[in-house]
Design goal:
The longest helix is centred in the middle third of the chain and has 17 residues, at 148-164. This protein is an alpha/beta fold. The chain has 11 helices and 14 strands. It has helices at 19-33, 55-59, 73-86, 90-94, 118-130, 148-164, 186-198, 222-231, 261-264, 283-293, 308-320; strands at 34-38, 49-50, 66-69, 96-99, 102-105, 139-142, 179-183, 210-214, 241-246, 251-252, 273-275, 294-303, 323-330, 336-343. Helices cover 35% and strands 20% of the residues. It has 2 domains: 19-94, no CATH class; 108-343, 3-Layer(aba) Sandwich (Rossmann fold), CATH 3.40.50. The protein has a 7-stranded mixed β-sheet, sandwiched between helices.
Length: 347
């Protein structure tokens, strides 16, 4: 069964992390706790406090240097004990997650961004290279959670726009967004807004190129869609989004009790459970909406539970009769995880 993991290797039948994975997590916890590194001993004066990040692992502590921690050692021990006893993901303990070139805020209101989902940004970047016009209209991320996918794609689009026009900056209006991000959960939307604000410069400058909306799938964008479609009316092409991406709830309800404790006990079921049968409750409206809301030539990318579910999503897209170049793509473990497609161009 393909299922959402927590980013570590299982070391036992109950899904417990392996010793190697736990060592990596200890590194994460310590790295997050380090506030700075002082290059010189106290006798040399105050010295120079350097930015932390990954400096400890990359360069080590300078001879005679000192480390400033955000947390006392006893508190770090308590945090690690909670990780082991309650199986709380370390990302929720630190409140942060490293993903691609970003560090995102994460809370139990959102899924922890997974390494395999980074591939969705790569697929989008490839689509932009293949069809540069896709950078000229807004994109949409459905079920955005932390906002990681929306922000990653917005950064790629912003990079492309600045390569053409170095002085380019995103506008301040709602319609100027590079990527619109939607989530049903107000708490998740709040986390996404915070992450979008933290990465505004990377996604277009000013207020940033990501706009977060609360609601179910396409519903909160109804007025935006109508306005954009009206602007395209003379061309008669319909739709308004150059790309639609989603990492939606896809775990079949029957499989939920079998998820790793880190996932089952701590991550939001709203963002996990895909419904009965193959778990397509979210996939079906997303696919149907994409057939209407994508511009001709627009790009679609979906993360699935893999295997049979991925093949079923392909069948759904085939049945809508507006998509071409439908592909199943593998994740880092070789699982048929993703489905990508383009909406056919008219004529």
């Amino acid at each position: 069964m393909a299922q959402r993991g927590t980013g570590f290797d299982s070391g036992s039948d109950d899904g417990s992390p392996s010793l190697d994975s736990l060592c990596i997590e200890v590194d994460w916890l310590v790295e997050d706790a380090v506030a700075g590194i002082r290059d010189h001993a106290p006798s040399d004066g105050d010295g120079a406090w350097r930015e932390l990040g990954r400096a400890v692992r990359l360069g080590g502590l300078p001879a005679g240097g000192r480390v400033l921690l955000r947390e006392e050692l006893d508190q770090l021990r308590r945090m690690w004990t909670r990780r082991l006893r309650e199986r709380v993901p370390v990302q929720y303990i630190t409140g942060s997650c490293h993903w691609r070139d970003f560090v995102f805020v994460v809370t139990p209101a959102v899924l922890i961004p997974r390494p395999e989902t980074e591939l969705m940004v790569d697929f989008a970047a490839d689509a932009l290279k293949r069809r540069p016009a896709l950078a000229d209209s807004p994109w949409l991320d459905l079920g955005t959670g932390s906002g990681a996918l929306a922000i990653g794609i917005a950064a790629e689009i912003a990079r492309m726009k600045r390569s053409r026009h170095p002085a380019w900056s995103v506008g301040a209006g709602e319609d100027d967004a590079i990527v619109h991000a939607v989530d049903l959960s107000p708490a998740a939307a709040a986390v996404a807004r915070r992450n979008a604000a933290r990465n505004a410069e990377t996604t277009g400058g000013g207020g940033g190129g990501v706009r977060v909306h609360e609601g179910s799938w396409y519903q909160p964008l109804k007025s935006l869609v109508l306005a954009q479609v009206s602007a395209h009316e003379k061309g008669g092409d319909g739709g308004c989004f150059a790309g639609i991406v989603s990492n939606p709830p896809y775990i079949p309800s029957a499989d939920m009790p079998m998820l790793q404790p880190e996932v089952r006990l701590h991550e939001p079921w709203l963002a996990l459970e895909g419904g009965t049968g193959l778990g397509l409750d979210a996939m079906l409206p997303i696919c149907a909406g994409a057939a209407v809301h994508l511009l001709p030539g627009g790009f679609l990318a979906l993360e699935t539970n893999g295997g049979e579910q991925a093949r079923d999503v392909v069948s759904v897209l085939d049945g809508l009769a507006v998509f071409e170049d439908i592909q199943i793509r593998r994740d880092y473990c070789g699982i048929d995880r993703f489905v990508t497609a383009y909406r056919r161009s008219q004529g």
